[in-house]
């Protein structure tokens, strides 16, 4: 028996154009993500990756460009993702919360514009059907490796950035009782280490001490505002007296890294002056799917399917890597679990009854772990004030004007439960 990955492309007149490709061949394309095959359909484009232009909300939020498609000119968050007839769209972001492995996908089709009454939640639908077991045992094991051995260096990097990706897993299915009870399972894991160039802006030691004379512009004293002239008097020589610097601000800025890279010609003074050396972003992911099919009698069929995935990423974004003051989500974790049960009854040749129930749970957690449990009294903040703040305690979030990097990140948790 030959397994095929089938792609139905539905155009305006709803005339399907079928493209079939052996799973073994499709499994070898970069990333092993069935969503990327959707770009084969007219009027369907992938979202822009971050750093290549105006990135979409999904790409800027997830830092990934393979999570959704734009169908028929609509926003990518408007696309619906059905997996075995159940909506898999992330309720918060709009991307696909469960992305099944290629070994699980029996077929999928893109539907848009005019479609049957059972659909209609979105202008574009990505419809995926999972594979089931058979009366024979089949299985496969795979490992894909990519690394930096043949890569060229980044234009802004002195050498080749580290890169290593391992994508491995196994799939298999068969029967527990011939012609009656079948099973199919798949596990896929993804491990990636990618060197990332990060440049930022941090004040110099003299600026932290209040000396801004090198800027060549007046630094006005906010306490000298004259309402009659609507103006302020500048500090003498562009230097802020030490007595005027807030002690909490002075304590916070001690967690800023100092500039370690000269400002390039053509840029204003003390900008693009920091580079995070040897930073490697980590990305770990697993995908697990189990499915059981049951044929009981000539008129009844049922199945149960469990799908789960867990992605944990390490993102440093402000030039501080896993230290107090990091603004990155270190770690950033997205956990998805999806369950569906389906019963199909062929009552008579002209009457078919189909009952389906599902439960999806989505968890998103992001925070800077090194900021957790920080003693805020070290910044000079009153213990009486701190006792009035809700927990948990973090370093806090500190923003600065004129393009300087922010410091700190608190924890953010998003939970959603969907019943269908």
Structure in words:
The chain is elongated and about 90 Å long. Mean pLDDT is 83; it is low at 1-25. The longest helix has 7 residues, at 247-253. Helices cover 6% and strands 37% of the residues. It has helices at residues 23-26, 57-62, 205-208, 247-253, 383-386, and strands at 4-10, 16-22, 44-46, 69-71, 80-83, 86-87, 105-112, 124-130, 138-147, 163-177, 181-195, 199-200, 274-275, 280-295, 300-313, 332-348, 351-366, 412-419.
Please describe the structure with a list of short key phrases separated by commas or semicolons.
8-stranded antiparallel beta sheet, disordered N terminus, 420 residues, elongated, mainly beta, 6-stranded mixed beta sheet, 5 helices
Secondary structure layout:
Blueprint: E1 4-10, E2 16-22, H1 23-26, E3 44-46, H2 57-62, E4 69-71, E5 80-83, E6 86-87, E7 105-112, E8 124-130, E9 138-147, E10 163-177, E11 181-195, E12 199-200, H3 205-208, H4 247-253, E13 274-275, E14 280-295, E15 300-313, E16 332-348, E17 351-366, H5 383-386, E18 412-419
Parallel strand pairs: 1-7, 5-8
Antiparallel strand pairs: 1-2, 3-4, 5-6, 7-8, 9-10, 10-11, 11-14, 12-13, 14-15, 15-16, 16-17, 17-18
- Treating each run of at least 4 consecutive H or I residues as one helix, how many helices? 5
Going across the biggest sheet, name each strand in turn. 9-10-11-14-15-16-17-18
**Whole-Å distance between the termini?**
35 Å
Shape: elongated
What is the rounded Rg? 28 Å
Mean pLDDT: 83
Helix content bin: under 10%
Strand percentage lies at 35-45%
Largest sheet: 8 strands, antiparallel
Number of beta-strand segments = 18
Q: Structural class, from helix and strand content?
A: mainly beta
**Poorly predicted tracts of residues:** 1-25
């Amino acid at each position: 028996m030959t397994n095929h990955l089938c792609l139905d492309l539905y155009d305006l007149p709803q005339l399907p154009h079928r493209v079939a490709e052996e799973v073994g061949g499709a499994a070898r394309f970069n990333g092993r993500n069935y969503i990327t095959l959707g770009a084969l359909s007219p009027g369907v484009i992938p979202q822009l990756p971050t750093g290549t232009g105006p990135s979409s909300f999904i790409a800027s939020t997830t830092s990934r460009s393979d999570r959704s498609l734009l169908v028929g000119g609509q926003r990518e968050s408007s696309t619906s993702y059905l997996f075995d007839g159940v909506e898999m769209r992330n309720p918060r972001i709009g991307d696909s919360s469960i992305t099944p492995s290629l070994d699980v996908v029996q077929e999928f089709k893109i539907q848009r514009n005019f479609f049957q009454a059972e659909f209609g939640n979105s202008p574009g639908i990505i419809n995926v059907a999972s594979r089931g077991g058979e009366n024979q045992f089949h299985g496969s094991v795979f490992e894909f490796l990519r690394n930096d051995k043949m890569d060229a260096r980044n234009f802004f990097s002195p050498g080749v950035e580290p890169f290593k990706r391992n994508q491995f897993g196994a799939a298999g299915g068969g029967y527990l009782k011939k012609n009656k009870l079948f099973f199919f399972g798949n596990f896929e894991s993804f491990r990636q280490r990618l060197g990332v160039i990060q440049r930022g802006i941090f004040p110099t030691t003299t600026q932290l001490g209040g000396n801004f004379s090198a800027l060549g512009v007046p630094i006005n004293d906010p306490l000298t505002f004259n309402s009659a002239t609507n103006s302020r008097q500048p500090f003498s020589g562009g230097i802020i007296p030490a007595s005027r610097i807030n002690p909490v601000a002075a304590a916070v800025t001690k967690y800023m890294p100092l500039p370690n890279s000269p400002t390039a010609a053509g840029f204003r003074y003390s900008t693009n002056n920091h580079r995070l050396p040897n930073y490697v972003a980590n990305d770990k992911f697993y995908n697990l799917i189990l499915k059981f099919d049951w044929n009981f009698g000539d008129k009844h069929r049922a199945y149960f399917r469990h799908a789960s995935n867990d992605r944990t990423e390490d993102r440093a974004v402000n030039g501080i890597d896993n230290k107090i003051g990091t603004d990155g989500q270190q770690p950033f974790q997205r956990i998805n679990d999806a369950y569906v049960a389906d019963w199909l009854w062929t009552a008579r040749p002209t009457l078919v009854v189909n009952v389906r129930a599902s439960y999806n749970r989505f968890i998103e957690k992001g925070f800077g772990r090194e900021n957790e449990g920080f003693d805020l009294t070290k910044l000079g903040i009153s213990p009486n004030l701190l006792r009035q703040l809700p927990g948990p305690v973090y370093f806090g979030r500190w923003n600065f004007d004129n393009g300087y990097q922010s410091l700190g990140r608190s924890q953010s948790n998003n939970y959603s439960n969907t019943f269908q």
